[in-house]
Design goal:
Oligomer: heterodimer
Shape of chain B: globular
Radius of gyration of chain A: 24 Å
Largest sheet of chain A: none
Order of helices and strands of chain B: EEEHEEHEHHHHEHEHEEHHHEE
Strand order of the largest sheet of chain B: 6-7-8-3-9-10-12-11
Mean pLDDT of chain A: 83
Helix content of chain B: 25-40%
Shape of chain A: elongated
Helix content of chain A: over 70%
Structural class of chain A: mainly alpha
Chain lengths: 305, 336
């Protein structure tokens, strides 16, 4: 999987017009074509693509992701690893909010089906699913940071203030909430549909016939079964959450992978792009594996092989 | 009979609200179940027999179905008689699984797939009898042994999907018996099972009923099962009881054309080959069950009845005593 991803990213990168040299050279003081050619030779950018790819791969399997072309002399691996932490933090916070809000709202909606509460939640979810991230991110930034001044407008920590958990959380809340909107809406819709289906199942009637309190009929007997398809959904949205996180990071100047990746793409910094996508890809795969394990823990019919 | 019945339903009507209109699924149902007795409720799909059993416990689908009229007097374990139709949701919940328990048709789907069998049996014991987790778990194992499940300690720790169909139905019976109910409602408990397993489950229910002296309301469409397990039978057609009485008498002398038709359409051993040789098919009842939203005037069965006369469509015939406690909703019962 990771290998296929690296081939794909490699090919797509080379298909894009321009190269690091074009991006590096200041248009105001152009280099001669000869000098640019010499630079390309030195970086190996002229070698045939398979040679370049396997050269990269041979080093990558030993953990050597090469050096950044733009930040001369900076190795890619530490650069990427230093950025993965903040991104994972942002994504985890966003998804945690999405899961809690989405599942709670989904349960309430299903239990109070067709009530004003249900319709209200459904309209909100519809708006949430339909709002593009660039819009919600910018609007959120404008209202909550600029107008209301409830939250800082960017960064992860207040510069020069030293580390404190409160400061980190204050910076985290707004981007995490904005990241969670679309996911919370999607999870809510799925949870509602799934729970409505489960509430019609025979074993829910059995639970009622046993004299189980209605609250526990829902929470104990129905919700756990209804969660199964929602867990699958959450697993598959994590890849999408990476995309969202990249966007939110660039809006909120969050020092994560997204910002690194956007800068690297702008400057055609091939080794950094390759390294970053590799680490993101591996993370998504690991998270999906965790999802499958969670699924097996919730559903006894799935055997952990 | 001098003993007060466990269950005494009078003139019960259950309606479903469909498309803004109330449709009666059960009309004017009067039925009693004596202590230790088994009463079978027989009928085709849509005749209202399952709805009757759900109405008793207030398990009708919310907002759609409701018990609109009549009373459901029930004498619980405490000896106190109450009208279940008038109880609030919380009081009714305390009756469910405690004084009255239910066994459903589909053992495959009526157990929760994500909890162990033992946990599901222990649950009503904790809820109604206030036992601890440990005590209830031990009770669950004992109940599994009681319903004839070998190696009950291991089975209690297993999930429903690890048990066979017959085994699961035994487990749901154990669950129903957990709080020693005075009435067991069995809604087609053998329909989804293999014939050999059916016989085992019937034997099991009969044995448990004898041992515990519990009353049973047995819902089925299978007349063979009725003959095997029930003392009395009530035949339902289009939401009404059309005939009721002791099983032996109703089977020997049906006093309603519908009952007679049903009994005639049951193939008997040896009969099929004789019929085939004679070139006559197995007798059936001509026509189809009328739609509940569009019942014919008068006797619902009249359009399919070979004995029907104009008086049959004039008014719904009352249940008439045909002697020996047998009741029929047919105005020409004497001629049958």
């Amino acid at each position: 999987m990771v290998l296929a991803l690296s081939v794909l990213v490699f090919i797509l990168l080379r298909l894009a017009p321009g190269d690091p040299i074009d991006a590096y050279v200041n248009p105001a003081s152009p280099l001669s074509p000869d000098a640019m050619q010499a630079l390309r030779d030195r970086l190996g950018l002229d070698a045939p693509l398979p040679v370049q790819y396997f050269g990269w791969l041979r080093a990558a399997v030993t953990g050597d992701l090469g050096f950044s072309i733009q930040r001369v002399g900076v190795p890619v691996l530490p650069l990427v690893l230093e950025r993965i932490g903040p991104t994972l933090l942002l994504m985890a916070a966003g998804l945690a909010i999405a899961i809690v809000v989405g599942i709670t709202a989904g349960i309430i909606s299903a239990v109070r089906r067709n009530s004003p509460t249900d319709i209200g939640f459904s309209v909100l979810a519809f708006v949430g699913i339909s709002s593009p991230a660039f819009l919600t991110a910018l609007l959120g930034l404008y209202f909550f940071s600029v107008q209301l001044r409830w939250a800082p407008s960017g960064g992860m920590l207040t510069p020069g203030a030293g580390f404190s958990l409160g400061d980190l959380l204050a910076h985290l809340v707004l981007p995490a909430c904005l990241l969670s909107i679309g996911h919370a809406a999607l999870i809510m819709r799925y949870m509602r549909a799934s729970l409505l289906e489960v509430l019609n199942q025979d074993y829910v009637r059995t639970a009622r016939a046993k004299g189980v309190r209605e609250f526990f009929v829902i929470v104990k007997h129905a919700v756990r079964n209804a969660l199964l398809p929602v867990i699958t959904l959450i697993g598959s949205t994590i890849g999408i959450a990476v995309g969202g996180a990249i966007f939110i990071e660039s809006v909120f100047n969050w020092p994560g992978m997204g910002l690194l990746l956007v800068n690297a793409v702008e400057t055609r910094d091939y080794p950094v792009i390759m390294g970053a996508t590799l680490v993101i890809g591996a993370t998504v795969i690991v998270v999906n594996l965790l999802t499958d394990i969670t699924y097996a823990a919730v559903d006894p019919r799935i055997q952990v092989a | 009979m001098t003993v007060a019945p466990v269950l005494d339903i009078r003139n019960m009507q259950t309606v479903f609200r469909i498309g803004g209109r109330d449709i009666a699924a059960v009309t004017d149902l009067t039925l009693t179940v004596e202590p230790g007795e088994t009463v079978a409720l027989v009928g085709e799909s849509g005749s209202g027999k399952s709805v009757t059993s759900l109405s008793i416990l207030g398990l009708l689908p919310k907002k759609v179905g409701r018990l609109a009229q009549g009373s459901v007097a029930f004498r619980g374990k405490s000896g106190e008689t109450r009208d279940l139709a008038k109880l609030d949701a919380e009081a009714l919940r305390r009756v469910r699984g405690n004084d009255i328990a239910m066994v459903f048709q589909e053992p495959m789907t009526s157990l929760n797939p994500v909890y162990t069998v033992g946990e599901q049996i222990a649950e009503p014991i904790r809820i109604h009898l206030g036992r601890s987790h440990r005590e209830a778990a031990a009770d669950a194992v004992r109940l599994l042994a009681d319903v004839g499940i070998p190696d009950p300690e291991r089975r209690a720790r297993q999930y429903p999907h690890e048990l066979s169909g017959g085994m699961r139905q035994r487990a749901t019976i154990a669950m129903a018996l957990a709080c020693n109910p005075s009435l067991l409602i069995a809604d087609e408990p053998t329909t989804a099972l293999d014939v050999t397993i059916q016989a085992q489950i019937l034997d099991l229910l009969a044995r448990l009923q004898r041992e515990r002296g519990m009353a049973m309301l047995f819902v089925t469409h299978n007349l063979g099962v009725v003959a095997e397990i029930a003392d009395r039978v009530a035949v339902m057609y289009a939401g009404r009881i059309v005939e009721t009485g002791r099983v032996a008498e109703v089977f020997a002398h049906p006093r309603h054309l519908y009952t007679k038709g049903l009994l005639r359409s049951v193939p008997r051993l040896g009969e099929a080959s004789a019929l085939k040789a004679a070139g006559t098919p197995l007798p059936t009842i001509a026509g189809a069950v009328p739609s509940l939203s569009n019942l014919p005037a008068g006797c619902s069965f009249a359009p399919r009845c070979p004995y029907a006369i104009s008086a049959c469509s004039a008014a719904v015939p009352p249940l008439t005593d045909t002697g020996d406690g047998q009741l029929s909703r047919c105005i020409r019962w004497q001629e049958i």
